Write the structure tokens for this entry.
Amino acid sequence: MRKYAKTLLSFALAGAMVFSAAGCGSSGPAPEEETGSTEAAVSADHVLNIWCWNDEFQSRFNDYYPEVKEVAADKSTTTLNDGTVVKWTINPNENNNYQNKLDEALLAQESKDDNEKIDMFLIEADYALKYADPEAGAAMPLADIGITDADLADQYQYTKDIVSVDGVQMATSWQAAPGLFAYRRSIAKDVLGTDDPAAVQEALADWDKFNAVAEQASAKGYKMLSGYDDSYRTFSNNVAAPWVKDTTLTVDPNLMAWVEQTKEFTDKGYNNKTSLWDDSWNADQGADGKVFGFFYSTWGINFTLAGNAGDEGKGDWAVCEGPQPYYWGGTWLCAAQGTDDADIVKDVMIKLTCTKDIMKEMTLNQDIQDYTNTVTGMEEIANDPDFGSEFLGGQNHIALFSKVAPKIDMSNVSAYDQACNEEFQAAFKDYFDGNVDIDTAKANFETAIKEKYPELTEIVWPE
């Protein structure tokens, strides 16, 4: 755990990890306080401690893990068939709350009794390598708890790459999160004369075409996108190199392409100047919204868009691939160093992230429709003529997700991603609004990122 203290706290003390608004797959509002801090009387001889930031995985566990016997009325614990009590500690993400408390608990792991130690904890893609690095000493390699390459063979490669260092896989996920472009059928008909996904995809197949449709939509009184951030992930997932190499930070040309597009959309009125998750952004997905579409990955369609659209929106939305393949979000399970329950952790991981039939059940559930991390399972559903999303007017969106997912390349992921992406977007909002010029926006980004990472010696911008 000493390596963990050095590696992880070097990020924490630098303020590197800030709140990720893209907390994936929220199946409801995050609890207002950590449920695990409520010291329910857990008198069982055996306790499995799981840490997460919302109830998404908790609900998947309770509904789909075959060993569940009973769930407490307040959901703070789950009892398994063998008498093991699963104790849930849920610390919401806001203001880096989850990571801060997880860091503190992991650093105290060695001094805890077995029933108090963290056995499994969850991480997100944007900060995965803070924890999923053998040198950090926070998580155990999957191989060390007996999970083999054969067990993981049916998972999407990018979901393995993102939590692997030098070929050592440190975590596993039940979901994949490829992205699509979700558009409003009624607006597409008015602008393009059709709402057919294949025809709309042809119209949006690259960024030049996408921008041309934005102009057409504006002429009809619509916005192409809601706000500044909507297309960011599509650009940032298609960079040529990691943010940081050694002590040099390089701003990829693709990120400046996002800046150029977003400035143009803002100046020409092609967006509504909203930010992700704010009230105006949510409202743009409602019945009175005038926005052509939104970039959303798997979880976003069912857990965010469908809720914002309401009953009036059911059937008025569809999806297409959009200009570029990308992913957004995802949740990974880590076995904590020091766990005394590696055998149970292994079983949970095998059943919920490597067992096709269980994972397919999650996808087939109309209330969930998780895009699960089984290549063959998703291909089976993609080819099922009877499967479709009620919200998307019967469209089999799994068929499109299954085309995009194999194209995702996360070889350029780095431990700096979360802070760099968030500070980059924040710095350029003033530029989009006309409050600063582009050089000032660049300078503001440099200042913010150097405060978080004092070790950086150089920041390189595209010529």
Observations:
- Confidence is low (pLDDT under 50) at residues 1-7, 9-43.
- Residues 298-313 form the longest helix (16 residues).
